[in-house]
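Q: Fold this one first, please.
A: Sequence and structure below.
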Amino acid sequence: MSRIARNAPCPCESGRKYKRCCGAARTEIDPRALSRGDMAVGDRIQEWAYANHRDEMDAALGELVGDPRDVIFGDTDTQLVASWQLNDRELPGGGTPARRYAQLAGLTDSERAIASRIASARLALLRVRSTEPGQAIEIEDVTRGSARVRVVSHEVSSYVQRNDMFVGHLTPGPPSASLWGAMAMLDRRGGRELIDLLEERIALLGLDPYADNVLGVAMASAALEVTRMLMPALRRPSRRSWRRGARAA
């Protein structure tokens, strides 16, 4: 990766200069503390969404899986469901539950900052370029053709390897780019299936397949189908009640 100028725009797309965003975070961020803070606020977003928009949350679950009583949900499934409900599906009148929560009056500055980062998380196809086990990974956002960015993550950095590909929600800085929710690893076949799905969506939307960010637009549009494709529970017949869960990576 070429050196990023300190005054250049941060590649995490936060809109800040690199020196005041991910560049400042390289040695200062505790990945476990960042994850704990994100998880705590994520839990509060989910509790608020169910308390204030229960019908829409249930509708979002039904759109994704049909009758939840017919499905056994593992940890990855519940996290994928939560990401779809909170980050990808808009409520009537506009705005996802995460975005609505971030705009609530009465939040502390720190909670609003975390909620805003979670609300800005975008579903992406990501390729690992290098790893710092237990600390961070350098990733490339394949869907948007973005510059490589260092992503703080204790858990994911402990098991991924160079050139691995996965789908997840990428959050901007500050204090650092990070990952939110479930990460779905892709093998060669899964990657091909995802690209085929996105190419079909590009055709359906009538987009120029060579335009900038066209895969990113398709990914956002096809979030329901992508999440459904990635859920292990929908690839096996089973029965069990659904349980909720949102986690930071």
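Q: Good. Now the second chain.
A: Here it is, same layout.
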Amino acid sequence: MTAEETKILQQHLQAAAAILLKNTPKEQLQNFASIELAVRDHVLTQVAPEIGNFFKQQQPNKSRETKRDSNLSGSMASQ
């Protein structure tokens, strides 16, 4: 990652953090432990799925996934 990309990423993360903070109940912001839990919850429910979906959409070849899925269903049928 270039220095410019790092700077842009930090700006976007600050903007996302501000939105998440605004949507976090005050009682979850009382101490480090509750803040950490609130952040983890936001990351797991909002941030990570969106990044995962973005990465998945960028995959040029979907045939590997289709092949893997058919292998899984084939192995299930033999059980």
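Q: Anything worth noting on the second one?
A: The chain has a mean pLDDT of 87.
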